[in-house]
Write a structure and sequence with these properties.
Helix content of chain A: 10-25%
Radius of gyration of chain A: 31 Å
Oligomer: heterodimer
Number of strands of chain A: 25
Helix content of chain B: 25-40%
Shape of chain B: globular
Shape of chain A: elongated
Number of strands of chain B: 5
Distance between the termini of chain A: 56 Å
Strand content of chain B: 25-35%
Structural class of chain A: alpha/beta
Largest interface: A-B, 28 and 34 residues
Strand order of the largest sheet of chain B: 1-2-3-4-5
Number of helices of chain A: 16
Strand order of the largest sheet of chain A: 11-10-23-22-21-12-20-19-13-18-14-15
Number of helices of chain B: 2
Radius of gyration of chain B: 11 Å
Chain lengths: 639, 69
C-alpha cells in the first residue's frame, strides 16, 4: 500500500458523511510528486479519494491536525496531530461517472488517497458539453476547468457573495458573458436588475439596456414601470403611502376597481371580463383622475345652500376680478383646483364649509398629488406610451413592455434602476419581479413562458432591497420557492448576505462565496449552504481576489476556483478609483486623476449641472451616431 | 470615433474628431477619456511626440477639460 505515492492514510472513524483519517507514518506532509505533477498533501479544501471495490468515494478535507483528532484519543495520542477530517460528497462509478451522494460508507481500515489530476478529470472533465459552463479554473490544479451545470445554476437559484473588492461584479460579468454566448446559447434569457448602473458598459453589445435617463445615442431604451400593472400592495407604498384604516383602504380599492371597470368597458382587453376584474387585475386606469376626484372630495370647500348636498355645483372656487375661477385644475398634470377657505361669520349670509366626506385619506391623497407632480416619479406614474388618459386608454399595453424586458433579440436585458428614488427601490424591484413572474407563470405552456425558455434573474446588490421587512422580499421569496417549476431562476449578488432574508438565501442551491471577512455574514452563508462543509467556509476570509468557493447543486464537488477574469472591455463599471496612480511626470501617468498628480482647474458649475440633470454623462462627450457593435477585444500590451 | 493604437507605456489608443475637436484617449488600463476643445495641431503634435504619455501630461493635462466616457 505504502508504495502507492497517492496513499495518505487509513480511515479510523466514520460518523455519517464525516470521516476521520489517520495519516500513515510514511506520509510526508508538504509537497508530493505524482506522475510529474506536484500535489500539496493535507490542504484544507483539497480532495480525497477512498476506493471501495469498483466505486471511488470522494470527499473534501475540512480539518487537518490536532483539532481533527477524535475526542477520546486526545489523551492517548501524544503526537496526535496527524489526523484529517473529511466530508464525503459523492462517488465515482466506473460506468456512469461521478455522482453526488453516497450509497455506501467506508469502514475502518479503508485507505484514503490524494486525488490526482487524472481523477479530477473524471469528475470535472466534460469538455464541450453545453450543459456546463466554465466559470474559471480549479485553484489547486489550474489545468482543469471549473464547470458549472447551467440547469441547476438557473433553476435552483444561486448566490454570489463577497466583500466589496473581492471580485463579485467581475465574477457575475464573467458568468453572464459565458451564458450569453450567442454561439452556444442563442436563446439565452437573462434579466439583470442593476441598481447602480454597473453592467451597462461591460455587456453593452449583448444587452438591451432600459434606463430611466436613457442615452439614445447608445441605443438605450427608456425604463417604464406602469403603476397600473402593480398590485394594490405594491401600488400603495409608492403612491398614497400606507393606508392603515380598513374603511379608507376599502374605499380606495373600490375607486380603483371602478376606474378599471370603466376603462375596460371603453376598451376590451382579452382575458378579463367585468365579472373577473379585481383591484389587482393589470388593466390600465387613470391614477390622475383617481387623485383629482379624491382630492376634490377631501379638500374642496362648498357654498352652503339650505339642505343641499355637497356636489360639484356647490364648489367654492377661488375667482379672479372677472368672476372666472383662478385655477380649475388639470387632471393629467396633477394640478388641483383652488378653493376658497372656509368661512362662517355671523353677519355674512354666505357660508363656506369644509368637505363633509367621511374618508380620512386627505394626507395620503396629498402625498399622491405631490408624487404625480414630481418628475422623478415619471417613469412610474407617467410611463410614456403606457400612460392612460382620463378614460384609461393607453397607446401600448403590457405586451410591448414584456416583449422589451423578456423578448429582446439580445440575450441579456438590463433594467438600470440607478436613477430611481432610493426610498421606493424595494417596491420597484418587487413590482418588476412580480410582473415578470406573473407573466411567465401564466404563460408556462406557451413558447413565451419560462418552461420553454427559462429566465435567469440577476439581483445585483440584493441586500439593499431584500431585507425581510421590505416588499421586494415577498416577490423574491415566491420566485425562490416556486420559480423552479416555472423556469424562473435567480442569482443573488450581495456583499452583506446577513441582511438578506434567510428564507431566500437558503433556497439558493449554489453559492459562489468569494472573500468574506465579516463573521456574521459568513455564518449566514454557512447555515444557508446545502453542503456540510465547515472547513471550506472557514477559509473565506483568506481567499484571494477573484477566487471563490463554489458549493451546491451546480457543481459536482465543492470547489475552490479562480474565476476567469473577463477581458478589460467586459469588466463592470465598479472598479475602485485609484487614489495614487502609477507613472511619473516625465513619462506621463496611467490616468488623468489621482492625488500624486498636479491638479486640473476645477469647474464645479458643470458638477452642479450634472447633479441637477441627474445624469453622470457630460453633455460634451462626443458619441458616434451609430452605436458601436462589436469592438475588437482589447488585448493587454497592445502596441 | 476611430482610435488608432500607439506605442506608449500609459496610452493604448488615441482618436480625434475634427468637427467636435474631441480627443479620445484610451489608457492601457482600458478606461477611455475624452478631452474637449483640443485644436488639431495639439493632436498632431501628440502623435508626433516621442512619448505620447509625456506629451499628454505636459501639454494637455490642465489645459483641456476632460470626462470619463
Amino acid at each position: 500500500m505504502s508504495s502507492d505515492p497517492t496513499f495518505l492514510g487509513t480511515v479510523e472513524d466514520v460518523s455519517g458523511a464525516s470521516i476521520r483519517v489517520k495519516l500513515a507514518q510514511g506520509t510526508v506532509s508538504g509537497l508530493s510528486f505524482i506522475e510529474g505533477q506536484s500535489y500539496r498533501v493535507g490542504q484544507v479544501g483539497g480532495f480525497v479519494r477512498i476506493p471501495l471495490g469498483f466505486v471511488n468515494l470522494y470527499g473534501v478535507i475540512s480539518q487537518v491536525g490536532a483539532s481533527a483528532v477524535p475526542e477520546r484519543l486526545v489523551e492517548i495520542e501524544q503526537h496526535g496531530n496527524r489526523w484529517m477530517t473529511i466530508q464525503l460528497v459523492g462517488e465515482g462509478h466506473p460506468v456512469s461517472g461521478f455522482e453526488r451522494g453516497i450509497s455506501q460508507f467506508p469502514t475502518v481500515g479503508d485507505s484514503a488517497h490524494i486525488v490526482t489530476e487524472f481523477d479530477l478529470r473524471t469528475i470535472y472533465g466534460r469538455p464541450n458539453d453545453r450543459r456546463f459552463v466554465q466559470v474559471g479554473r480549479l485553484a489547486s490544479a489550474s489545468s482543469i476547468p471549473a464547470l458549472v451545470e447551467i440547469d441547476k445554476l438557473v433553476t435552483r437559484h444561486s448566490a454570489v457573495v463577497g466583500t466589496t473588492g473581492s471580485g463579485k461584479s467581475t465574477t457575475v460579468a464573467g458568468i453572464l458573458t459565458a451564458l450569453s454566448d450567442g454561439g452556444n446559447y442563442p436563446s439565452a434569457r437573462i434579466l439583470v436588475i442593476d441598481i447602480h448602473g454597473e453592467y451597462g458598459k461591460a455587456l453593452a453589445d449583448r444587452a438591451a439596456i432600459f434606463r430611466i435617463n436613457p442615452d439614445a445615442n447608445k441605443g438605450e431604451h427608456p425604463l417604464y414601470i406602469p403603476y397600473w400593472a402593480m398590485t394594490l400592495d405594491e401600488l400603495l407604498p409608492v403612491t398614497f403611502g400606507p393606508i392603515e384604516n380598513g374603511g379608507d383602504r376599502g374605499a380606495v380599492i373600490d375607486r380603483i376597481t371602478e376606474l378599471k371597470l370603466a376603462a375596460l368597458q371603453q376598451t376590451q382587453r382579452p382575458g378579463v371580463s367585468p365579472d373577473t376584474l379585481s383591484v389587482d387585475t393589470p388593466v390600465p386606469f387613470c391614477i390622475h383622475k383617481l387623485w383629482f376626484d379624491l382630492h376634490c372630495e377631501m379638500r374642496a370647500t362648498h357654498y352652503e345652500k339650505q339642505g343641499q348636498p355637497q356636489t360639484r355645483q356647490t364648489w367654492a372656487l377661488e375667482k379672479d376680478a372677472n368672476g372666472k375661477p383662478v385655477q380649475t385644475g388639470d387632471v393629467l398634470r396633477g394640478i388641483p383646483p383652488r378653493f376658497l377657505p372656509a368661512k362662517d361669520n355671523k353677519d355674512d349670509p354666505e357660508k363656506i364649509r369644509l368637505s363633509r366626506s367621511n374618508l380620512g385619506v386627505g394626507r395620503s391623497v396629498d402625498a399622491l398629488g405631490s408624487k404625480l407632480r414630481d418628475p422623478r416619479f415619471d417613469f412610474l406614474l407617467r410611463p410614456g406610451p403606457y400612460l392612460p388618459d382620463e378614460n384609461g386608454a393607453v397607446n401600448q399595453d403590457l405586451d410591448t413592455l414584456l416583449a422589451g424586458w423578456l423578448g429582446d433579440t439580445r440575450p441579456i436585458t438590463i433594467l438600470d434602476l440607478s436613477g430611481s428614488p432610493p426610498m421606493i427601490q424595494s417596491e420597484l424591484v418587487g413590482s418588476v419581479l412580480r410582473i415578470v413572474y406573473d407573466a411567465l407563470f401564466w404563460a408556462r405552456n406557451i413558447p413565451e413562458g419560462g418552461r420553454e425558455r427559462p429566465l435567469l434573474i440577476v439581483l445585483e446588490e440584493a441586500h439593499a432591497y431584500l431585507d425581510p421587512k421590505q416588499i421586494a422580499s415577498v416577490a423574491v421569496r415566491r420566485i425562490a420557492k416556486e420559480g423552479r417549476k416555472y423556469g424562473i431562476g435567480m442569482m443573488l449578488v450581495s456583499q452583506r448576505p446577513a441582511e438578506i432574508d434567510q428564507t431566500i438565501l437558503s433556497q439558493c442551491g449554489t453559492i459562489f462565496a468569494l472573500r468574506l471577512s465579516n463573521s456574521i455574514d459568513r455564518n449566514h452563508i454557512k447555515s444557508a449552504a446545502s453542503d456540510n462543509l465547515e472547513g471550506l467556509f472557514a477559509m473565506l476570509p483568506v481567499l484571494r481576489t477573484g477566487e471563490a468557493v463554489i458549493v451546491g447543486e451546480a457543481v459536482n464537488l465543492p470547489v475552490r476556483t479562480l474565476i476567469d477574469r473577463p477581458s478589460t472591455r467586459r469588466r463592470p463599471d465598479s472598479t475602485d478609483p485609484k487614489v495614487v496612480v502609477s507613472g511619473s511626470e516625465a513619462q506621463g501617468y496611467e490616468s488623468p486623476g489621482g492625488w500624486n498628480q498636479r491638479r486640473d482647474p476645477a469647474d464645479y458649475a458643470e458638477a452642479v449641472e450634472l447633479w441637477r440633470r441627474q445624469n453622470p454623462r457630460s453633455n460634451r462627450v462626443h458619441t458616434d451616431m451609430h452605436p458601436k457593435t462589436d469592438m475588437p477585444e482589447v488585448k493587454g500590451g497592445e502596441e | 470615433m476611430k482610435r488608432q493604437s500607439i506605442s506608449s507605456s500609459n496610452i493604448a489608443e488615441v482618436g480625434y474628431d475634427e468637427n467636435s475637436r474631441v480627443l479620445e484617449v484610451q489608457f492601457t488600463s482600458g478606461i477611455v477619456y475624452q478631452y474637449f476643445d483640443v485644436p488639431p495641431q495639439i493632436y498632431a503634435e501628440m502623435m508626433q511626440a516621442g512619448s505620447a504619455g509625456q506629451y499628454l501630461n505636459a501639454n494637455i493635462k490642465g489645459n483641456f477639460r476632460y470626462a470619463r466616457v
